[in-house]
Each structure stands twice: as structure tokens, then as C-alpha cells.
Amino acid sequence: MALSLLSQLLHSCPVEDFYDAYYEKKYLQIKSANSCLFQFNTEMFKVALLKSAFTHPENIRANKEGNVYIAPLPMEPYQLYDWAMEKYNNGATLILNQVELNDDLSKQFAIDLGKDMKAYISLTAFLTPENSQGFSPHFDTHDVFVMQMSGSKEWHIGDFEIELATRRQGFLVSPEVMNSPHTIISMFDNDILYLPRGMVHWAFAEHLPSLHVTVDIDSVTYSDLLLELILQTSLNMTSKENKMIVNLFQRDFNGNLIPELEEVLKNLKFETKLFNLVLEKKAKIRYL
Ligand SMILES: [Fe+2]
């Protein structure tokens, strides 16, 4: 039987071990895992950048030592491309979101991995000049696989700022964290790094320009499922049932959810139809 894309990406780490020990819990570095699963190089980055300048200019930005640069849109596509390359030549990291929108192989990769992980997957590319740092210490609100495509990068990984961070939680942390104990790992061509959402990190390009692509994993959360459940139910319920749903959200004096709601949440995980509805909606939002 053919190995799933996730299992190929995890290389020497079995899928079950990944979910048991690492997923949303710990970082994981996988050496030399990506020799043929995903292809992207600096020339491809530049082509994707130009295509995005035409189709999705809002997906292009630059970062230098924590400062974010966004082009004043609307801007003529070639002018936007030149704006980005000028920022890069002055030491900024270029960030291209949703690479899959302009590249069929990337799109297939995102779709296949999304099926394996039961999540919505998007790809973001980062081109960093040598001897520079794009982002200040921060945490992301989605899990990522970092795929180092060329050059090298030194990653600094701290503790969880917030476990299971969600989209509404801010992601910047105090630069002081750089002085506290943390792990340092070096990423080279074809290495992969899994980082759970909420875990603090920052990175430096070393003596060569660095290109990495992050696989952004937008997991289906309980709140996604619950919202969809309420929406689907409300289409077809009486005011009496409606009141029952409202009652489910009441908490006890200690702020705990009532047991009935906990039960509903546990069972929602296994509602494949609901899961698929949420994924479909996430895909529609992203692929507009
Ligand atoms: Fe990040």
C-alpha cells in the first residue's frame, strides 16, 4: 500500500508516534526528510511572487527585525514585484502567503496533506537574505511544518506562551525571551521542523540566503464544529430546541462547562459530515 503524504513527510517518525507524542505538544526536527516530496527554489519563489503580484497582491509582505512592511495597494504588478525585491535587497524577509493559489503542484500537496491530517492546509514561503532576522520572538496560532528548501536557518525555540492558541490570540511576545533558556537547532536543505501552535520561536538566516516554506495547518477546532452544529441545527429547530442549545452554554460557578456540553463536544469529533462541512467552508474562504 502506498504511504500517505503525512507518513512520508514524517520520514522516520511513525504517524501514530507523531500524534501521540508531538502533535500540539512538542516540536520535532526531522533530518533530510524532504528530498522529493515538495520542490521549491528561489527561481520558483520569484515566479510565484510575480504571479501573486497580478492575482493576490495582498499575499505579499516583508519583515525586517520584527517590522512589517506592506505595499501601498493598489500597485501595478511589476512595480509591486520591484517593491518586494528592493525590500529583500535591503535585508528584509519576503513572505508569500498561499503559494498554492498560483502553483498546481503546491495546491495538490496542500490538498493531499489536508486529507491526511483532516485539516485545512495552506503554504507560505519565506525568502530571507543572509545574516538577517525577519521576525521577533512570537508564536503562531496554527501548527506548522517548516520545510527548509535552500540555505540554512538557526531556529530558537522557547516554551509554550499559550497552549492550543487560537486565531484571536495575539502572537507577539517580549523580546526578553531571547535571554531566557531555550533550544537552538539548525535547519539545512530538506530538513523539516514541526512546531505546535502557541510555542515561542524566532530564527536567523546564517551565511547564505534562506528559503523555507511553512505548511500552515488550520485544524478543525471544537468551536468550528460547535458553530457549524448550531448553524445546521438552527436551520431546522423549534424555539424549544433553540432554548436547549442556549442552556448548554451555561457554566457552573467555577466556570466549568456543564457535563451535557462536554459530552456534545466529545461526540462532535466523530461527526464526519460536520467535519467535512467545516473543511469545505475553510477551503472556500481561502480559495476565493
Ligand atoms: Fe512563526
TrEMBL record:
Key words of the record: Iron, Metal-binding, Ribonucleoprotein, Ribosomal protein
GO CC list: ribosome
JmjC domain sequence ranges: 97-234
InterPro entries with a match to the protein in the record: JmjC_dom, NO66-like
MF terms in GO: histone H3K36 demethylase activity; histone H3K4 demethylase activity; metal ion binding
Cofactor(s) listed: Fe(2+)
Domain of life: Bacteria
Protein known as: Ribosomal protein L16 Arg81 hydroxylase
Gene3D superfamilies: Cupin (2.60.120.650)
